[in-house]
Amino acid sequence: EVQLVESGGGLVQPGGSLRLSCAASGFTFSSYWMYWVRQAPGKGLEWVSAITSGGGATSYLDSVKGRFTISRDNAKNTVYLQMNSLKPEDTAVYYCADGYATYWGQGTQVTVSS
Question: Which of 61, 48, 40, 22 lies closest to 109, judged by CA?
Answer without folding.
Answer: 40
